[in-house]
Hints:
- The chain has three domains: 17-110, no CATH class; 113-196, no CATH class; 197-343, no CATH class.
- β2 (147-155) and β3 form a beta hairpin.
- Strands 1, 2, 3, 4, 5, 6, 7, 8, 9 and 10 form a ten-stranded mixed β-sheet that branches.
- The protein is 35% helix and 22% strand.
- The protein is α+β, with helices and mostly antiparallel strands.
- The N and C termini lie far apart (94 Å).
- It has helices at 21-33, 35-42, 47-59, 68-74, 85-94, 97-110, 176-187, 203-211, 225-234, 286-309; strands at residues 117-125, 147-155, 161-168, 193-196, 215-219, 244-245, 250-265, 270-284, 331-337, 341-342.
- α2 packs across α3 (47-59) and α2 (35-42) runs antiparallel to α6 (97-110).
Amino acid sequence: xxxSVKHGLVPIIVANRRFYEATYLLDxxxxxxxxxxxxKQCFPTLYKQIQSxxxxxxxxxxxxxxxxxxxxxxxxxxxxxxxxxxxxxEIFADISEESRNHFFRLQQRRNQEDxxxxxxxxxxxxxxxxxxxxxxxxxxxxxxxxQINLALVFGQKSGLPFYYRKLAxxxxxxxxxxxxxxxxxxxxxxxxxxxxxxxxxxxxxINGLLGEHLKFILAANTSHTxxxxxxxxxxxxxxxxxxxxxxxxxxxxxxxxxxxYQQERPYKQDVLxxxxxxxxxxxxNIEKYADDQACFDRKVLDMRKEVxxxxxxxxxxxxxxxLNKGALGDFSVLSQSKHGQLY
Length: 343
């Protein structure tokens, strides 16, 4: 039997295998949140590359960008091709302030209008000697390295971030509020509710927030004299049945008081002083109080033994390494102004 053989070009089928589970999940998240649509509208020529780089940074957070090529060969992603490290730097440089703010505005419109916006900052240590914003400052991790600060705003209900800002490492937390408010005005946000921790508690910040008639929630450290004065008003009455929150197991009470508001007026070269109404929401944790009281008693007994034996034992400390802070240390404080709240 004769078998005929065809001569000429023979088609070659190339098969490869790529992972698609994690990137498919990110695709669906981006589609449901409208991130892909907003990126396409703001960055029509770069949006797929931006998505792919973002996927890589999420899934390979400990890997540098020059390893993107290997990751790209093993994973399916929006751009579908390799993005060299140099090209990544060019993409970052092409993202303008205007287009970024446009993206923030589009994302904010998709969030719930009645939700609170939580705002906080963090510091990231760096060995970089070329970034101007990397400077020595108050390092939250106690690293002896220069740092860059990052500010983030996200919705309290949705949990979705829609604004961030890089800050120089020397700028303290309390100095970023004014810049944040100015940026919000540029973005066109007029109804602002801020939630901040005790790192933002200062007279200048509170005066600035009240002066802008903003709604805000701010944590207050119980070591401040003004805060202790408000706690003393309910110190003897807060442990009552009417003040018990069954859900959280805490005693709570609200104090209506006045804030000594001050506003510098350069055009008049004077300082406006007036009273502003605020509300302090005070919480008492009886379980923590009992633990702290027991720790205090043990510490006193240990100190008594040291005195009687004339031998110093530096290893004797409370569980938190400190002497009991007293009854005020068991309180959490929230304060609400006429236009907002302070925690």
